[in-house]
Amino acid sequence: MKDKSFYHAFEDRFRGSRELIKSRLRIYLPFIIPLKAIYDDCRVIDLGCGRGEWLELMADEGFEAHGVDLDESMLAAHKAEGLSVTKADAMEYLQALHNDSVVLVSGFHIIEHIAFESLQKLVSEAFRVLRPGGLLILETPNPESLSVSTTEFYLDPTHRRPIPPKLLYFLADYNNFVRIKLLRLQESPLLYGSNGVNVTDIFFGVSPDYAIVAQKSAQKEQMSLFDKAFNEEYGLTVDDLALRYANKDQQLFAYERERWQWLESELSAAKVRFDMQAVEIPSLRDRAAQLDAQLSASKDQVAQLDAQLSASKDQVAQLDAQLSASKDQVAQLSERSQALESERKRAEWLDRELQSVHSSICWRITAPMRAGFDLYLGAKANLSAIPQISRRKIGSIISPLLIGSIHFAKAHPSLKAQALKLVHMYPRLDAWLYSFVVSKGLVDCCTRVQISSHGFSESSLSPYARRIYGDLKDAMEKYRKEGF
Fold first, then answer.
1. Is 56 among the domain residues?
2. Domain for residue 326, yes or no?
3. Given phi > 0 = left and psi -120 to 50 = alpha, else beta, which region is 136?
4. Are strands 209-215 and 64-69 parallel, antiparallel or unpaired?
5. How is residue 366 annotated by DSSP?
6. Same structural domain, 48 and 196
7. Contacts of 91 (CB under 8 A, 6+ apart)
8. What is the pLDDT along the chain (484 residues), one digit of tens a residue?
9. Using CA atoms, how far apart are residues 394 and 340, in angstroms rounded to an integer?
10. DSSP secondary structure, 179-228, as one string
11. Fewer CB under 10 Å: which end of the chain, C or N?
């Protein structure tokens, strides 16, 4: 800490960081930049250059900046950074400059450190050395701020007394500066918010610093380059804050009045709605009673529908059972229909075969045989009444006829095949002929196998036909044993 001078360390502690100060100084750039449009060489003198923030900013903007200060430790830091500085008394250095030799003379927080007579001379000398259109910038604490004028100003032991803004403004005007702008600086950004100002802001929210930017006369076209910057308003005064506070009260009062009027209108509307609802209450009660009755009736209907639904479910279950039984019956009928269709087709086939047999030569040839058999069947009922001798006489008459027919058929193979086919169609005839030919010795027993197996299968008969066929075989065997 002791490597710095007291005032150097004091500024580091209480004024703010170099970056903060440099950012605050940018507010002057709109005033200064137009100078580069008027002059090619723009020499700037900063009196009491301090830590050099302004010199750095001017160098960054392309100005030829030179600083003057008496603090050796601050100057050593500037020289190390390559800034142009001189250790000298600010007034003496200013008096040594030529007339119309610089475009800008600045002094930031220097005039509160000197006597008023020195301040008068400084303003006068600055006017002398400035070129036409040149600027004088002087920044100092603002005594309009209650906190500055009562405490903050006296924190720096080198301060003499605060300079009121109007006094400094008048001093520049007295020394023939044609245009002067008063800038109030460093107020809290919160004061520009939507929350407005409080009573304490009127006393402590005023801009804590202010500056004047005074311009020396020049040609009208040159002066117009600075119009925009000089026409702006900067900072907050006590009057500004008081007016805003008053406006806030007025706005608050107007808001409360509007809110009260709104509440009254809402209350009136609520009363109207209440009266209308009071009139509607009896009808609403009647309507509620009707709805209750409808609800009760609906419940009864729902109960009835539930009962009907239950009965319908039972009916559906019964119908499902009937449908299942009907499906079984349909399946059985389908099977029977298929069986009947098979029997019908077989009957048609047998009918065709019978017609074929009836139209065949074999049928005509075997007519005597069939006639004898029919004669036999016709007389069978009376055989028991005919004596044994008479039956044998009848048999002796029929037997030669049958034997002759059999020999004739055996002599003609094609006729024999057709005769066998025909005989096999009549199981009773087939069985009787077999018994007859065997008893007469016309064929042996093994021949029967051939005859019976040719074109006939007992398994192909229906159950009813097989039963009849069995009865015929038993009857033929019985008749054979009795004498044929």
1. yes
2. no
3. beta
4. unpaired
5. T
6. yes
7. 114, 118, 121, 122, 125
8. 455 667 667 666 766 678 888 999 999 999 999 999 999 999 999 999 988 899 999 999 999 999 999 988 888 878 878 889 999 999 999 999 999 999 999 999 999 999 999 999 999 999 999 999 999 999 999 998 888 888 888 888 889 999 999 999 999 999 999 999 999 998 866 666 555 666 666 666 788 999 999 999 999 999 999 999 999 998 787 666 667 666 655 445 444 665 666 667 777 777 777 777 777 778 778 888 888 888 888 888 888 888 888 888 888 888 888 888 888 888 888 888 788 888 788 878 877 876 776 676 656 666 665 665 565 556 555 555 555 555 566 566 667 767 777 777 777 776 677 777 777 777 777 777 777 777 777 665 434 434 444 444 566 666 766 776 677 667 666 655 654 4
9. 45
10. EEEEEEE---GGGGSTT---HHHHHH-S-SEEEEEEE----HHHHHTTHH
11. N
DSSP of 306-362: HHHHHHHHHHHHHHHHHHHHHHHHHHHHHHHHHHHHHHHHHHHHHHHHHHHHHTSHH
Cβ-contact 36, 62 below 8 angstroms: yes
The dihedrals phi and psi of 233, each to the nearest 5 degrees, come to -110, 140
Pair 232, 369 in one domain: no
Give the number of other CB atoms < 10 A from CB of residue 138.
Answer: 25
Residue 81: give its domain's CATH number: 3.40.50.150
State the residue for tokens 């002759």.
404
Which distant-in-sequence residues (6+ apart) come within 8 Å of 380 by Cβ?
none
Which residues, 6+ apart, have CB-to-CB distance to 149 below 8 Å?
143, 162
Tell if the pTM clears 0.85, that is, is over it: no
User: Could you give the C-alpha distances from 267 to 58, 194, 272, in angstroms and in order?
Assistant: 66, 31, 9
Give the integer Cα–Cα distance in Å for 376 and 378. Answer: 5
Task: Identify the burial level of 105 via C-beta atoms within 10 angstroms of its C-beta, where 0-12 means exposed, 13-18 middle and 19 or more buried.
Answer: buried
Give the position of tokens 């506070």: 245
Residue 75 CA, chain-centre distance (Å), reads 68
Give the residue numbers spanning the domain of 142: 6-236
Task: Measure the CA angle with vertex 217, ends 214 and 222; round to 5°.
Answer: 100
CA atoms within 13 A on the CB side of 207: 22
Identify whether the C-beta of residue 370 lies closer than 8 Å to the C-beta of residue 357: no
In a domain, 350, yes or no: no
Q: Is residue 325 part of a domain?
A: no
